[in-house]
Design goal:
There is one protein chain. With about 290 residues, the chain is α/β, with parallel strands linked by helices. It has a single domain (about 5-15, about 30-285), classed as UDP-N-acetylmuramoyl-L-alanine:D-glutamate ligase, CATH 3.40.1190. Helix content is about 30%, strand content about 25%. The chain is built from nine helices and 13 strands. It has helices at about 40-50, 65-75, 115-120, 140-150, 165-170, 180-190, 235-250, 255-270, 280-285, and strands at about 5, 10-15, 30-35, 55-60, 75-85, 90-95, 100-105, 130-135, 155, 175-180, 200-205, 210-215, 220-225. The strands form two sheets. The protein has a nine-stranded mixed sheet, with helices on both faces. It has a four-stranded mixed sheet with strand order 3-2-6-7. Helix 5 links the parallel strand 9 and strand 10. It is globular. The two termini are about 35 Å apart. Pfam families: PfkB (PF00294).
C-alpha cells in the first residue's frame, strides 16, 4: 500500500519585525528563517514520519530544488515533483514582537501542474492505495475523478476552505477532513451537516477540544485532545491528517489512527516551525501527556 499526495510545496519566509509595517513604511527585519511549508509538503512529511510510504505529486520552480531535496531527506518519494518555469510557491510571513503576523501567499508552481503529469504518476498506483489532496493546487477535480476510477481511497483535506472546491470533489471522496468552522461553512452552503455529508469517513477537527469521527451508518465518536502548552499551532492540522492517513494505509482501525494522530498533533503545537519539526513515530509513541 502507498499514499499519493497531490500537494503544495512552499518556502515559508518568516521575518521578525519590531512591529507590523504601516502603509508606505519601510522596516528592517531583525531576523529571517526559511522553512519548508505548504499543506501538501507538511502532510507528506507527516506520513513519512508516521512510517508509511508517500509519493508526492507537485511542482517547484528552479528556485525550489532545495525543497524537493529536503522532502527526499525526510523520506518522501519525490519522483513526481516536476520543475516548472514558474517560481516555487512561497509565503512571506511578518511577525512582530507580540506574535501578531501578516502573511502574503504566492501560489506559484503549485498552480502550474500539468494534468498529464498527474496521470503518469497515478499510473503507478495500485487499487486500495490512498490519494489525498488539499485546496492549494490545481487539478484537484481531475485527480479525484482519476483516483476514483482507479479504485484508490480518495481523501480531501478541505483547506484553505472553499465550499465550491469541496462540492466539486465530493462525488469522488471516501474520506473528508475539515475543521469545525469549515464544517459550519459547508453546511451553510449545502445544507448538509457533517453527519449528512455523503462520504464514508468524515473527521471534524475541533482544535483544543479534539476531533469527531463520523462514519456512515454509525454514531459519531469524539476524541479528546491532549492537554499541552501550545506555542505554535501552525502545521498541527496537517500533522494530524498525515498521521491519520498513515494509520489508514497501515491497516489501523480508524479510531486507533485518530488516537495516534491526536498525540502527534499535541506534540506539534509545542514546537515552532512547519514540516521541519513534525514529530516522528517514536517521539509520538514515547510522548508523556498529563
Amino acid at each position: 500500500m502507498a499514499i499519493w499526495n497531490l500537494g503544495s510545496i512552499n518556502a515559508d519566509m518568516v521575518y521578525a519585525l519590531p512591529h507590523l509595517p504601516a502603509p508606505g513604511e519601510t522596516l528592517a527585519a531583525n531576523g529571517l528563517d526559511r522553512f519548508l511549508g505548504g499543506k501538501g509538503a507538511n502532510m507528506s512529511v507527516a506520513v513519512a514520519r508516521a512510517g508509511a510510504r508517500v509519493n508526492h505529486i507537485g511542482a517547484v520552480g528552479s528556485d525550489g530544488r532545495w525543497a524537493r531535496d529536503r522532502l527526499t531527506e525526510y523520506g518522501v518519494d519525490t519522483r513526481y515533483i516536476a520543475e516548472v518555469e514558474v517560481p516555487t510557491g512561497h509565503a512571506i510571513i511578518a511577525v512582530d514582537a507580540q506574535g501578531e503576523n501578516l502573511i502574503v501567499l504566492y501560489p506559484g508552481a503549485n498552480h502550474a501542474l500539468d494534468v498529464r503529469q498527474l496521470g503518469q504518476a497515478l499510473a503507478s498506483a495500485n487499487t486500495g492505495d490512498l490519494l489525498v489532496m488539499q485546496n492549494e493546487t490545481n487539478a484537484q477535480v481531475e485527480a479525484a475523478r482519476l483516483g476514483h476510477e482507479l479504485g484508490l481511497t480518495v481523501c480531501y483535506a478541505a483547506a484553505p476552505f472553499q465550499a465550491q472546491a469541496v462540492q466539486a470533489v465530493l462525488p469522488y471522496l471516501d474520506f473528508l477532513i475539515l475543521n469545525e468552522v469549515e464544517a459550519e461553512q459547508l453546511q451553510q452552503e449545502t445544507g448538509l451537516s457533517a453527519a449528512d455529508i455523503p462520504v464514508r469517513h468524515v473527521i471534524v477537527t475541533l482544535g483544543s477540544k479534539g476531533a469527531r469521527y463520523l462514519q456512515q451508518g454509525c454514531e459519531p465518536v469524539d476524541f479528546a485532545a491532549h492537554k499541552v502548552q501550545a506555542i505554535d499551532t501552525t502545521g498541527a492540522g496537517d500533522t494530524f491528517t498525515g498521521y491519520v492517513l498513515a494509520g489508514m494505509d497501515r491497516g489501523m482501525p480508524m479510531e486507533q489512527a485518530i488516537l495516534q494522530a491526536n498525540r502527534a498533533a499535541a506534540l506539534m503545537v509545542t514546537r515552532h516551525g512547519t514540516a521541519d519539526v513534525i514529530p516522528d513515530l517514536r517521539e509520538v509513541r514515547d510522548a508523556q501527556f498529563d
